[in-house]
Specification:
heterodimer; A: mainly beta; seven-stranded mixed sheet; four-stranded antiparallel sheet; globular; B: mainly beta; six-stranded mixed sheet; 11 strands; 0% helix
Amino acid sequence: DTAVSQTPKYLVTQMGNDKSIKCEQNLGHDTMYWYKQDSKKFLKIMFSYNNKELIINETVPNRFSPKSPDKAHLNLHINSLELGDSAVYFCASSQAGTAQYFGPGTRLTVT
Amino acid sequence: TQLLEQSPQFLSIQEGENLTVYCNSSSVFSSLQWYRQEPGEGPVLLVTVVTGGEVKKLKRLTFQFGDARKDSSLHITAAQPGDTGLYLCAGRSGSARQLTFGSGTQLTVLP
């Protein structure tokens, strides 16, 4: 069974569109995260949710909005996509601040 | 902002050689983790070190946490092509749930 899953794996879209990325974890973890990995492979935290509550919200444009319907899901909605949003987005989960388990990533390409 | 600098950024070696990757910061971390990321996948945790001076071994991989808990190293003995990947260190400060990731070392082991 996949521990942390993301959909879609690849997402190609045009500037100005709105898109969502879904994430689910079946590990029973209490904390979920969204990371952005740029072309230089630098991994930067965007958001963190603990038990459905936002606890980390780094400086990201307000076009990015996370939504956590329950502890096992954390979705990322992006409005008015821009070229600079092109990157690989990773979802991760952990229990009580221990090891983080990452999903396979979503490669977003904005044209 | 706590920065974790990794060196070298890129490393290409022949199978059977030894190598060391470094992770340095001016900040003190309560724990430090090492991850390996393969193309098209998310990072996977290799080890967590929490005590200054701690050394952990994982088969041919040896991880060391600096005495002052500001730096760490990863040594690979007799590297194999399967060791190829992006190696990321990540530090946690105090009781923070947030991980700060290093800049990464891309390792290529040639057969």
